[in-house]
Amino acid sequence: MDRRRFLFTALGGGAVLAISGVSALRWLGGGKGQGVMSAAAPVAAPAQDLLLECFADDDGHNLGPCHVQKLVLTDAQWHQRLSDAAFYVMRRAGTEMAFSGPHEKPNSKGLYRCAGCNTALFDAATQFDSGTGWPSFWQPIAKQNVIEIRDTSYGMVRTAISCAGCDSHLGHVFDDGPAPTGLRYCMNSVAMSFVAFRVS
């Protein structure tokens, strides 16, 4: 793997990869996992350095821990990056309507990335049909890539799940899932993009 491809793959879109001697570059991702590396764009506040797990798009293998900076944008910048539906879910902790997005298990192997910053979130191998109308998984691809937050909205006590790379709301986790974890990570389709593995 050449150095440029490694940088693109290892970064996973989380924002800035901290490598000594390499200029800081920002992921200006488009939809569906597309993006280019360019000089850092304006952000709302200084970003926090993170240590996340990075995964290759071609076959999903774990590239190990990588230093990225949390993606911090203004509402206007998030509106430019996300669709209205994704903005409502990811930046306003909303919920898409059940069965409104792609929720069935894909026919190919792959992984799901954050629609906001491209951080790897879930391996399709852990996805199952929960019958709820939302993509459901029994575990995240890496615990450090997601954040659990106590959610007491609507008179309920739940555990909300956000992307560690950009603090975007993804969904909730419940304890009614299948083995081996018994958990159901109930995610919003618009908060994720699916990347099919290029090699079997």
From TrEMBL:
GO molecular function terms noted in the UniProt entry: peptide-methionine (R)-S-oxide reductase activity
Keyword Oxidoreductase attached: yes
Keywords annotated in UniProt: Oxidoreductase
Top-level division of the source organism's lineage: Bacteria
Pfam families noted in UniProt: SelR (PF01641)
Start and end residues of each MsrB domain: 75-197
Family: Belongs to the MsrB Met sulfoxide reductase family.
Name of this protein: peptide-methionine (R)-S-oxide reductase
Organism: Dyella flava
